[in-house]
Amino acid sequence: MRDTWTIVWKELKELVVARASRPLCSAGYLAMLVIFGIAAPWWLGRQWLSDSLVFWVWVLLPLPLVIGAAAESFAGERERHTLETLLASPLSDRAILTGKIMAAALFGWLNSVAVQVLGLITVNLVHAADGFLVYTPALGVGSLTLGLLAAALTACIGVLVSLRVTTVRQAQLTLTLLIVALGFVIAAVGAVGLHFLPDGYQDRLAAGLSAPSVTALLAVLALGLLLADAILYFTVTCCFRRTQLLAE
């Protein structure tokens, strides 16, 4: 496990340094902080702490950052000609692979958490007279949990793609198209499923989403994402072959 965290720490440092040295990346992150950490919470006020739309903002916000980090995991090593050095190290295959997946997921998720905390501070400054305000449990805990699981899923897909391509740009493009296609399929299946629900069930479902049963729904979503994470992680470990990568 120590070797895994060695890789995680190495990757996170490289990601932070690389993005800090790129003006466009720094500007994009600053824009994310201003929009989702200050402007939107200031405008929506208390609604920012409980709105269902905000929930999905926190779940999806880490994904662009994860895509960029995961795309660089192995393709970036190839471009920098450091992949051979990494693979020749005494670190195990599992430590290298798991460390890169964890680093990509944590990079996106922790940045999202930082923005989420900034949004909470903004709302409390705007409504200082109302006492200390916090996110509702479903939005706070639910979005953090699903956001981390979604980030891990994206990281697994990204590392798998990065193993197979030669450049970071190619990995980013492929991964973006895959995530968009996956989101489209999920949305289409959900829309078709709702369309064919018997009369009255849609109203009951909408009512259920605003009731305590939302906790059960979030638990089901979390379990589904966890299962998908496990399947993809197993797939990536099966595809990772150190000898094959060294021979390329």
What's the gist of this structure?
By secondary structure, the chain is mainly alpha-helical. The protein has twelve helices and no strands.
Could you characterize the architecture of this molecule?
- The mean pLDDT is 83.
- The longest helix is centred in the middle third of the chain and has 34 residues, at 93-126.
- The two termini are 28 Å apart.
- The chain has 248 residues and is mostly helical.
- The radius of gyration is 20 Å and the shape is globular.
- 32% of the residues are buried.
- The chain has one domain.
- The protein is built from 12 helices and no strands.
- α1 crosses α7, α2 packs across α7 (93-126) and α3 runs parallel beside α8 (137-164).
The gross shape turns out to be: globular
Give the amount of beta strand, in percent. under 5%
Please, how many domains? 1
Give the SSE order as H and E letters.
HHHHHHHHHHHH
* H/I helix tally: 12
Rg result: 20 Å
Salient structural properties:
single chain, 82% helix, 12 helices, 248 residues, mainly alpha
Write the layout of secondary structure elements.
Layout: H1 2-20, H2 23-44, H3 52-60, H4 62-72, H5 75-80, H6 83-87, H7 93-126, H8 137-164, H9 168-195, H10 201-209, H11 214-239, H12 242-247
